[in-house]
């Protein structure tokens, strides 16, 4: 679609153009026409990737931000649905609680803080973030976060303010982290490829739909995780520890990446002269970060336990709604909840999760590398998503993120996982009234240019085409897409049989699960047997 | 058209449509209810009552083709939800269904725009074609007016592009047909009528069969008009239709002053009145002088002479004269686009009760010229910014504010970089002359040719080529837009609070009208003084 700038023959500039008088124009024009042949007839459109790298990045970021703003005009989780509303109300309620009650009571059931009504169940950093946003809302529109009286408060201006708390978090945390990541990790790639990778990460629909449609603040925890990944790539292990600890302290779901960080950093420590000292340094850093985040709750052992009990609600069950993981998909055949008790299931799920993430961990401990680390992030988050206890549909954001970070390494995986991940959230988004942005963003993702066919240093790289170009697997994407289209049509236009009211949701779940499982197997294999960045590893060693 | 080209257009149009879909829940103006009411009128009433119905204040005041178009849409609307097309129950109806239906009807109607831009870019080189597609499909003005504010300009402008494409290809009859149809859709487009008339008369009706050709042309136009107005003539409705189409008695300016000469005229008038009063001269300032422009109000002036519709019409035709003379003397198909743009610019600058949205009528066709010469590219960046910025007051709600700003800034950034690198860096005249007649149309491609010829004096590539697209004045002016916006959004509310609430809007229309005037004068200068040097008209050039 767009060509690289390198093949452009540079004709002289036209500085004097506007000042030249029309007379000279005509005089020179006539004589020139004869000599000028048609050699430049079919000139392709050129975007100045080289000279305007940052303008390009700016334009992509602006477009991504525009889309986020547009999505935020639409509905959100639990809009005008009393008595419990949805995630929007949860976040608003946390602002109300954090602004009006003392820190120590945030996680405790008090007269002002009824934990049964959207009690805070995220780690302290989310609470602090709610506090900051709450102060902002309190200053502009106090009624929106007034204690007790503001439950279910939704009006035009408060909605706009709430949306802007997410938009500003996104632009302050996620965007810079992604820009830094792309500039670092893909620094050896052509600018055009970097721009493509940036677009893939920022324009990925799943995150936009959940954060700015459904209403959550994943951009913060995921942004911190991306920052941590960038630090890992830069070999700034201490920084990585801090950022990843912050990410964990914003949302406990970041645990999905913990095996990757743990294994990679451990592997790096083993490469040092004194591994024990290295591990100690990192461990102290993690503990220190945690201590800072948890400071107000460290007064007694009991208050720590109280917070922890809020973070790990075992009573919620094996999975929530229709999530495309192992437990939910197989529960059609095997009634897990009848065979095992909940604690038993929790242990079983934990064992399977660890088992599934173990291969990728071992690989990183043995041979830590930048690309391997990102694959490890992908694989361990897949392991958690597919097998862990109490997984939510929205958790699919976690495997999607590393897949987008690996955009240039694995364009095929990216082009499978993003649509399937978005599709796995179809029932959720349908309930939220987000079907228009769902289709708009998904179509937009398909319409974006496929992977640029230029490898590093602008050389054509024929191996990396879009999924639709790889000849061997031509049939597979076709089947996959047609299956997805059929399922969409069924879900949107047919009524399920009365005996099985959730039949279509279950079908979508199983369909997505099969895809995820296949992708997870492939990415695990890829991490072990096809390390691409050997060159980079050796370069690192030379340093 | 080749498949790959179709793919290119389809993917750009697809991306634009995705953005438009996301815009569905944005603010929509009363024009939304106006069009909904027209659906109801055309669906529930017999044709003879369409233009006399008064059950809602939003009476039908577009020409018959648009009414037929609404009638066509109403078939689907009533299938979807009968309340949409109900004359009484439907009033003020704004459920999600009707919003989605009307919004999507605009997006689908935009297929005309894509068709038009395909046609007009057919003979351009790949780079220029892409530039034109980008410039038209992602025009922020269209997004703001059609997909947020709500109107159907996209497909009408598509018809204008189809008409211009036909003229540029030499299919004069087809061009005339499209233009006649366009005017029967929306009569505001009739401003370019004199240009079409003179050009077709001189370019088409010539040669040995000129009389026959004249009748063919007249037959085509009259045929279109008869199809449009015939049914109403049959029911003796023509006087009623005319009364609705030309509602005299509206003010010289619209409620928000469109940035044209009259905005400046008013501002000068008010300023003079205030100054005179300060120095002690008694001036009889009329009441409501500053809220003028409401329907039925003649916006009285304090000092300067009153403007009547006749003066305004005379000025429009008068300023168009140089262009008409050119069209009469040298009816070249390569210049038609510029004349049409100029005609709409005249209509915008001097017309009676002009809406700010009418600036789209010149910006969209001007993009055809912009991809053909560097100077026009610079002018395009300039006028697109000014025109789009002058649309900002249409969207006054907080939630659309960042959207309109980002739409404009992103568009200007992308177009600026694209123009600078696809027209400047690799030389101006690189599209081949033979198959691209329109690239022949204008001058200013001098220095490349000089250098291509001699291969000497090759200067180093300057650091930032893009900056040369605009002159110093234009850059300073555009920077001033930022100040105007900062004043209106930050300084004015902060310092003056509720005093002089009209001042920011007045500042915007006053400031933008200076830019519009500059653009209009530049076009006038080019048409009057530069196209005379066209190669055909200078026989001595051949010797050189």
TrEMBL record, chain A:
Compartments where located: Endoplasmic reticulum membrane
EC code: 2.4.1.-
InterPro entries named in the record: Glyco_trans_ALG6/ALG8
Pfam family, one: Alg6_Alg8
TM annotation in the entry: 54-71, 164-188, 278-297, 373-392, 436-454, 475-494, 500-522
Keywords: Endoplasmic reticulum, Glycosyltransferase, Membrane, Transferase, Transmembrane, Transmembrane helix
Organism: Sphagnum jensenii
Family per record: Belongs to the ALG6/ALG8 glucosyltransferase family.
Main location: endoplasmic reticulum
Enzyme superclass (EC): transferase
Pathway listed: Protein modification; protein glycosylation
Protein name (database record): Alpha-1,3-glucosyltransferase
Membrane topology term: Multi-pass membrane protein
From TrEMBL, chain B:
Superkingdom of origin: Eukaryota
Location of the protein in the cell: Endoplasmic reticulum membrane
InterPro entries named in the record: Glyco_trans_ALG6/ALG8
Transmembrane helix among keywords: yes
The protein's annotated pathway: Protein modification; protein glycosylation
Enzyme class per UniProt: transferase
Membrane topology: Multi-pass membrane protein
Database matches in Pfam families: Alg6_Alg8 (PF03155)
Keyword field contains Glycosyltransferase: yes
Broad class of the protein's primary localization: endoplasmic reticulum
Spans through the membrane: 131-150, 177-202, 214-235, 247-268, 336-355, 376-395, 401-419, 502-521
EC number(s) given by UniProt: 2.4.1.-
Keywords noted in UniProt: Endoplasmic reticulum, Glycosyltransferase, Membrane, Transferase, Transmembrane, Transmembrane helix
Similarity-based family: Belongs to the ALG6/ALG8 glucosyltransferase family.
Name of the protein this chain belongs to: Alpha-1,3-glucosyltransferase
């Amino acid at each position: 679609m767009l060509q690289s700038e390198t093949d452009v023959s540079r004709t002289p500039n036209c500085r004097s153009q506007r000042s030249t008088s029309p007379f000279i124009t005509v005089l020179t024009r006539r004589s020139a026409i004869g000599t000028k042949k048609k050699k430049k007839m079919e000139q392709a459109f050129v975007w100045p990737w080289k000279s305007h790298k940052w303008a390009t990045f700016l334009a992509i970021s602006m477009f991504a931000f525009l889309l986020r703003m547009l999505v935020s005009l639409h509905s959100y989780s639990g809009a005008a649905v009393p008595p419990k509303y949805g995630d929007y109300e949860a976040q608003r309620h946390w602002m109300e609680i954090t602004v009006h009650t003392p820190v120590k009571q945030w996680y405790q059931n008090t007269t002002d803080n009824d934990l049964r009504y959207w009690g805070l169940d995220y780690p302290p950093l989310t609470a602090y973030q709610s506090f900051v946003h709450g102060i902002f809302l309190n200053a502009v529109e106090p009624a929106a976060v007034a204690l007790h009286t503001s439950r279910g408060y939704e009006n035009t201006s408060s909605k706009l303010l709430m949306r802007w708390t997410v938009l500003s978090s996104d632009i302050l945390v996620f965007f810079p982290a992604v820009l830094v990541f792309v500039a670092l990790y893909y620094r050896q790639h052509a600018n055009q490829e970097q721009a493509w990778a940036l677009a893939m990460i920022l324009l990925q629909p799943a995150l936009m739909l959940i954060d700015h449609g459904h209403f959550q603040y994943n951009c913060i925890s995921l942004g911190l995780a991306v920052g941590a990944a960038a630090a890992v790539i830069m070999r700034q292990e201490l920084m990585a520890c801090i950022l990843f600890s912050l990410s964990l302290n914003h949302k406990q779901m970041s645990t999905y990446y913990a095996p990757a960080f743990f294994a990679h950093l451990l592997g790096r420590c083993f490469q040092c002269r004194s591994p024990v000292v290295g591990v100690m340094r990192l461990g102290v850093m993690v503990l220190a970060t945690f201590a800072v985040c948890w400071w107000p709750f460290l007064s007694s052992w009991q208050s720590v336990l109280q917070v922890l009990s809020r973070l790990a609600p075992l009573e919620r069950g094996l999975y929530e709604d229709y999530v495309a993981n192992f437990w939910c998909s197989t529960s059609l055949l095997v009634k897990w909840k009848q065979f095992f008790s909940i604690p038993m299931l929790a242990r079983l799920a934990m064992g399977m999760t660890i088992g599934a993430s173990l291969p990728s961990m071992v690989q990183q401990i043995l041979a830590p590398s930048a690309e391997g680390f990102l694959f490890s992030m992908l694989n361990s988050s897949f392991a958690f998503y597919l097998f862990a206890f109490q997984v939510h549909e929205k958790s699919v954001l976690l495997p999607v993120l590393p897949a987008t970070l690996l955009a240039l390494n694995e364009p095929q995986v990216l082009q499978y996982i993003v649509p399937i991940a978005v599709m796995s959230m179809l029932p959720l988004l349908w309930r939220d009234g987000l079907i228009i942005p769902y289709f708009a963003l998904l179509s937009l993702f398909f319409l974006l240019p496929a992977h640029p066919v230029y490898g590093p240093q602008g050389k054509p790289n024929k191996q990396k085409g879009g999924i639709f170009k790889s000849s061997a697997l031509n049939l597979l994407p076709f089947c996959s897409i047609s299956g997805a289209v059929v399922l969409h049509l069924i879900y949107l236009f047919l009524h399920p049989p009365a005996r099985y009211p959730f039949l279509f949701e279950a079908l979508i779940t199983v369909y997505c699960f099969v895809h995820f499982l296949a992708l997870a197997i492939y990415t695990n294999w890829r991490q072990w047997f096809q390390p691409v960045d050997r060159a980079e590893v050796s370069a690192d060693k030379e340093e | 058209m080749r498949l790959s080209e179709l793919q290119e257009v389809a993917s750009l149009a697809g991306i634009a449509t995705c953005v438009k879909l996301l815009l569905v829940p944005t603010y929509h103006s009363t024009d939304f209810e106006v069009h909904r009411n027209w659906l109801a009128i055309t669906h529930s009433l017999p044709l003879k009552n369409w233009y006399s119905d008064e059950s809602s204040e939003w009476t039908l005041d577009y020409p018959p083709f648009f009414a037929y178009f609404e009638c066509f849409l109403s078939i689907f609307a009533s299938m979807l939800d009968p309340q949409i097309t109900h004359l009484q129950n439907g009033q003020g109806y704004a459920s999600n269904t009707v919003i989605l239906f009307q919004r999507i009807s605009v997006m689908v109607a935009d297929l005309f725009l894509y068709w038009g831009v395909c046609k007009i870019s057919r003979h351009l080189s790949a780079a220029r074609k892409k530039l034109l597609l980008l410039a038209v499909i992602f025009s922020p003005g269209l997004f703001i007016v059609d997909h947020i504010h709500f109107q159907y300009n996209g497909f009408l402008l598509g018809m204008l592009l189809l008409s211009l494409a036909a003229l540029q290809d030499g299919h004069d009859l087809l061009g005339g047909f499209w233009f006649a149809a366009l005017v029967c859709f929306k009569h505001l487009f009739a401003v370019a009528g004199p240009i079409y008339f003179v050009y077709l008369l001189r370019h088409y009706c010539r040669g040995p069969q000129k009389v026959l050709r004249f009748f063919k042309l007249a037959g085509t136009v009259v045929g279109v008009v008869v199809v449009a107005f015939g049914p109403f003539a049959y029911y003796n409705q023509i006087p009623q239709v005319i009364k609705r189409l030309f509602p005299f008695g509206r003010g010289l300016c619209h409620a928000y002053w469109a940035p044209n000469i009259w905005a400046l005229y008013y501002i000068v008038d008010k300023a003079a009145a205030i100054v005179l009063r300060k120095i002690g001269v008694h001036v009889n300032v009329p009441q409501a002088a500053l809220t003028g422009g409401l329907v039925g109000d003649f916006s009285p002036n304090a000092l300067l002479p009153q403007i009547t519709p006749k003066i305004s019409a005379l000025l429009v035709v008068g300023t168009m004269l140089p262009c008409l003379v050119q069209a009469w003397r040298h009816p070249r198909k390569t210049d038609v686009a510029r004349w049409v743009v100029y005609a709409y610019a005249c209509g915008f600058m001097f017309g009676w009760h002009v809406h700010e949205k009418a600036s789209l009528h010149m910006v969209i066709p001007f993009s055809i010229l912009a991809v053909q010469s560097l100077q026009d590219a610079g002018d395009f960046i300039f006028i697109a910014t000014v025109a789009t910025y002058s649309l900002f007051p249409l969207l006054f709600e907080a939630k659309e504010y960042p959207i309109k700003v980002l739409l404009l800034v992103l568009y200007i950034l992308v177009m600026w970089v694209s123009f600078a690198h696809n027209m400047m860096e690799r030389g101006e005249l690189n599209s081949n002359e033979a198959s691209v007649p329109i690239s022949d149309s204008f001058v200013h491609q001098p220095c490349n040719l000089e250098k291509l010829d001699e291969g000497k004096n090759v200067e180093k590539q300057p650091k930032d080529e893009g900056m040369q697209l605009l002159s110093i004045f234009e850059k300073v002016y555009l920077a001033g837009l930022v100040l105007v916006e900062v004043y209106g959004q930050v300084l004015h509310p902060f310092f003056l609070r509720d005093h002089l609430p009209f001042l920011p809007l007045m500042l915007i229309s006053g400031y933008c009208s200076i830019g519009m005037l500059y653009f209009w004068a530049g076009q006038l200068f080019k048409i009057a003084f530069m196209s005379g040097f066209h190669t055909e008209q200078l026989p001595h050039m051949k010797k050189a």
